[in-house]
Amino acid sequence: MNRQQALRYETDFMPRIVERVTRVVGHGVRVEVLPYESLLVPTRLHVSAERAPHEGDDHRRGYVYPLNVFLTWDDEEIERLLGAGGEARFVRYLDAIGAKLDAWQGARDVDLTTRSQAEPSVLFGGLDFEA
Predict the structure, then answer these.
(1) What per-residue confidence (pLDDT) applies to 1?
(2) What distance in Å separates the CA atoms of residue 2 and residue 78, rounded to the nearest whole number?
(3) Locate the DUF5594 domain: which residues (predicted)?
């Protein structure tokens, strides 16, 4: 993917991903786009927060580290998104993002409810746009 494609992706698609992820994870979570720097440092979505208060709920303490997740999408997937039929595919993806976030949590010991995770930083990389 070249810089021009990355800029189009960041302009046309990432704001809608940010909006949807923000809606799914709720208040108190920062969701920001980290722009494309190079082939080795692609566009990233950074999802972070301070841990949510436990309010006396001892069995829901969560993990040791506060939420600090990075998401990146596969370059070929982004290029497909920029091509014919990409917009319709993307809309289906946005509709499925809540379920995807749920699945990613379990796969990497991330708990959005408590705003915590098992590792200091988690990368969900090489993501696709399948619904």
Answers:
(1) 81
(2) 11
(3) 1-130
